Amino acid sequence: MTDRGQAPVAELHGVGPQVASRLKALGITCELDLLFHRPLRYEDRTRIVPLGRVRPETRVQVEGRVVHQEVVQRRRRMLLVTLADDTGQLTLRFFRFFPSQLRMYREGNRVRCFGDVRFGPQGFEMAHPQAQVLGKGEPPPLPKHLTAIYPVTQGLAQATLAKIIDAAVDRLLDGEIRLADPLGSSESPPLQEALRIIHRPGPEENLDALIDGHHPAVQRLATEELLAHHLALTRLNQARARQRAYALKPDEALQEKLLGVVGFEPTGAQRRVVGEIMEDLGAERPMRRLLQGDVGSGKTLVAAFALLAAAASGRQAAIVAPTEILAEQHYRTLSQWLEPLGIEPVWLAGKVKGKARREALARLAGEASIAIGTHALFQEGVEFRDLALIVVDEQHRFGVHQRLALAAKGSEGVRSPHQLVMTATPIPRTLAMTAYAGLDISVIDELPPGRKPVTTVVLSQGRREEIVERLRRALGEGRQAYWVCPLIEESDVLEAQAAETTAEELSAALPEFSVGLIHGRMKPADKQAVMDAFASGKTALLVATTVIEVGVDVPNASLMMIENAERLGLSQLHQLRGRVGRGSEQAACVLIYKPPLGETARKRLETMRETTDGFVIAERDLELRGPGEVLGTRQTGMLRFRVADLARDADLLEPVKSLAESLDVAGADVVIERWLGGAEQFVDV
Ligand SMILES: Nc1ncnc2c1ncn2[C@@H]1O[C@H](COP(=O)(O)OP(=O)(O)OP(=O)(O)O)[C@@H](O)[C@H]1O
């Protein structure tokens, strides 16, 4: 029993290599993934709204005859078109236009337009509608269902993606793609019907529920997805129960030496957690432990103790981080700490090529005891002599997939490595138990001494000049600052551009200080150079996109401005703010928002002003993460689910457990294969 129609997208009609690679960026590699790509929202093109009945702040489809066309000269040339029908008139406004549009909107032409209505100088108007000219005969028929709008990515147009998905939905409804439905009638609606509703809802469907995910069709898919994760984790745990690991014993003399180099005393919480980890490492059962510690709580030192135990036992340990910036940060800190102990870590990331790579590989297969890097450490061709411990600095970037892959890496040998997963955002307990089922949990619930909570103020962007003045004063006192420009559009190109523009503006406004710029589209070496300049104090101000959200540790930086703060989720704001207040200086964070502020955004910013406690923030985040917060969901990313959302679907977890028990092995295979793409191959050891 498998799903028929699992063609790789590259084999589909109309999908060339370029589109295929863009689809991959969206997590779509086979035809089935297209069906599971959930729309962001829907547009109602099933009906025509009479011009006399359009209302502002709505998005509608209208039809009418052009009764007037005019090019007016304001700051630039604008095209104004008046449409009329029997009930009234509507203005179309084009701030930029092509000559072809003058022909398209020639007086007398009939056009069908779709767009946002707002109140303008000429009454109701629509700016830059999507439009089609209607011929003389019967107008083209209206669709019977709503039009789905999908999340896209840079370089992939909505129309292209919609067409490809549409074809897949056609094939599903024609019976060419057949989906096994192991849950059968126990869940309603049936799988195929659920997919139909999600991609092509009739006008009668509850759209809000479809968008926010409470609709039975979405819940049906979410149930199956959670089930897939549950089944995969159960299998993983079963496999683990049979695994054995090498017992690793700490060397007290080395530990003392490490503390001497590090130069501070561990907090009580760090000591306790190190104790828990040492107990696990000392056993022959592989450790599977989640280390939770708020931003700046000192997880790195705890990791260092674990790594040291492996080295002291004559075996190998690896620490992996999700981004190069973060991995390099670890490399720098840990090298500083470990080299005086005679341990020289190996550095490996994707960008390490040629001779350097060959050397790194030789050391991993040979004398090295500690490896630091990105996921490149676990790619084909990397062989460890004796990997006994893996520390994953997850920061919420890795999902179950990767954890399974890591487990697989260790399972090749006779013994499995111990695993420590570190995470910075505190996860409410109920969620932690699901997202990290099968892991033991340690919590660092104390910050290093002398930390003063970051003072947070919330200001409207109208007060930018004042904010820049404040920045000038702080920099003048020798402090360092971050200026964060987060994602405004769903595109890293635009994000990078926004950051570049901001950096130019700030350089011009603050000529007496040196301003650095870092964003995700820069080459790793350039990023590193910028980070080094900032860490060494050469640059006073670092303009950054949210690439700095995780793990960056520059204790002298004590001021952070976050633009468009209203767009960010709470846990992301918390992560970002955690970059300051890491030294003994009183730190401040300015959250700059663009009015008007919605209710949820206002509550979020208030929460940030009121507390710096990661657990309080995480709980509040769960309460507040309202429907349709696509950015929020994407960026808080507890676990990368396609449809399910742990905050929304917590009540599905119990039913999922009983479903799992009622499913036979073949059914479980189908579900795991479908949602986790054959992850079970990693699980069976
Ligand atoms: N016990 C301690 N006493 C004083 N300073 C400490 C202590 N433990 C850690 N630090 C310092 O606190 C800062 C934060 O530690 P670290 O980078 O390990 O935090 P983290 O838990 O990894 O946070 P994040 O998730 O934000 O990266 C570092 O500069 C570190 O050297």
Automatic annotation (TrEMBL):
It catalyses: ATP + H2O = ADP + phosphate + H(+); Couples ATP hydrolysis with the unwinding of duplex DNA by translocating in the 3'-5' direction. Its EC number is 5.6.2.4. Plays a critical role in recombination and DNA repair. Helps process Holliday junction intermediates to mature products by catalyzing branch migration. Has replication fork regression activity, unwinds stalled or blocked replication forks to make a HJ that can be resolved. Has a DNA unwinding activity characteristic of a DNA helicase with 3'-5' polarity. Keywords: ATP-binding, DNA damage, DNA recombination, DNA repair, DNA-binding, Helicase, Hydrolase, Isomerase, Nucleotide-binding. The keyword Isomerase applies. One of its GO terms (molecular function) is ATP hydrolysis activity. InterPro entries: ATP-dep_DNA_helicase_RecG (IPR004609), DEAD/DEAH_box_helicase_dom (IPR011545), Helicase_ATP-bd (IPR014001), Helicase_C-like (IPR001650), NA-bd_OB-fold (IPR012340), P-loop_NTPase (IPR027417), RecG/Mfd (IPR047112), RecG_dom3_C (IPR045562). GO terms for biological process: DNA recombination; DNA repair. Pfam families: DEAD, Helicase_C, RecG_dom3_C, RecG_wedge. It comes from Wenzhouxiangella sediminis. Residues 477-623 form the Helicase C-terminal domain. CDD domains: RecG_wedge_OBF (cd04488), SF2_C_RecG (cd18811). It comes from the Bacteria. This is ATP-dependent DNA helicase RecG. Residues 280-444 form the Helicase ATP-binding domain. Belongs to the helicase family. RecG subfamily.
